[in-house]
Model the fold of this input.
Amino acid sequence: MQDFKRVDQAWDATLRPSKIPTVSGAAGANGQSVLSVRQSRFGVKSSTPLGDDVLQTQFEFDMFGTGDNAGQTTFRLRKAYGSWGDWLAGQTNSVFMDGDSFPNVIDYWGPNGMVFIRNPQLRWGHAWGGHSFAVAIEQPGNDIDPGQIRQIDPELASQITSREKVPDLTAHYRYDGNWGHVQVATVLRDVGYQGLGTPDNRPKGDETGWGVNLTGNIKFGSASQLILAGVHGKGIASYMNDGGTDLAPGGVQDAPIAKTVPLTGLVAYFDHGWNDQWTSSIGYSQTSVTNTPFQEGTAFRKGQYASVNLLYSPFKALLVGGEFLWGSLVTKNGQSGNDSRLQISVKYSFSSNP
Done:
């Protein structure tokens, strides 16, 4: 891929608006070429008759390093779960997420304004006719921004960490028809914080996080579809594909007061099949938050993402194509930055099954 500007060097193999610098030269001089295999994915599936049903398992990983391994080509677990009947246990797509709302793009991270996360979970789900329902408890993960506490008491800011006392509760209802599908999902979570090594672990506390995610696909013929998604809530940034934070200081009195951060995400994409071999996808996405008074000026406020591509698949096992991407970031203090890039990808698909 050819990046015409620059992003955080640890994330140069994809376009995440939150990683776009708002200060000129902060990520280096404009222009960066990247050749990467981090998007490669490998997996194993199995089906085993067990009692009156079938035990299905899946193990899958890619090479896209995140967290401490950001920027590295290294193994990253995507899925590791087993399902039997209506029950599932292990790591897979969150119940709060709609995997079918991911458009036909080749940028690996994809639109920023969609719910996209794979969590360890215990799930129960049932399908009847075109309807399906699922409910789960999922691994909590809170993202905390100390904000201006860094300036008031740097030592205290370094000691504040997340506190996850109970699992997140997620649920969704989905209806599938010949025209497409619609899904509404919810999450209810305890977003906690505490001080490490401080007297009585103070400051500490808990706030309630919640979110509603409405998604749907509308089919146009057999090879085209409109993808729409909208999510809103408080303290749900951990579930988003990019942007924002769950908890931030809303004030500083005798001790910092934490508040869940309101967030809204939007996705609108159109996937079109020109014929059996050529396809395109075009669309726009954004994530925006309402910053708390005591977040720093450099805190994320709004990220935008747009892309258009042309893909060619002469055989089922081969895909080549190009994609133009644009993204922008606006911070709390109004500083902004943008990035544009051209990505060309080649994908080989293979399986042990004929």
Summary: The chain has one domain: 86-348. The longest helix spans residues 154-159. The chain has a mean pLDDT of 93.
